[in-house]
Amino acid sequence: MVFHTTKALNALGLPVLRFNFRGTGLSAGEHDKGIGEVDDVRVALDWLDQEFHLPLIFAGFSFGAAVGLRAASPDRRVQALIALGIPITPVDDRSYDYDFLKSCTKPKLFVSGSRDQFASREKLETLVSGLPEPKKLVIIEAADHFFEGRLREVRDTVETWARDVVRPKSPRP
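Above: the chain sequence. Below: its structure as tokens.
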């Protein structure tokens, strides 16, 4: 999922950074229930900005979308937001609140599977309908949370949307 999204954005000439949150894979630290992970996203945005001086697009999958949107939405350097498989239904001790997006006027793309076990179509439509424009919700039919067997559709959706929304500018001085 994440690989296909990075390929779509990279195909548009945008540099891409994929990383694991604290305590995931070989990353140092411990999972911080979404609090410290917001800081992880901020650090990643800082690095991308410092290295490339280009407009930034945030794209996150599942938990990464939930915490990443919280960091990227108010960040003036971030031009657009992409949430893939965004969770809405509480899982374990996690609950998700997206009220902060109600003031976000940046372009927003939400992509989910029609069979996503963490966000029903109805809940996604309710969430997205309450957000300011510009926004787009794409439901990939017959796809589960991980878009198994439907990754090409996700990639094409991201690439088409980003091409229409993002106009890379020359690097900032």
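The helical segments are 2-11, 35-52, 63-72, 121-129, 151-165.
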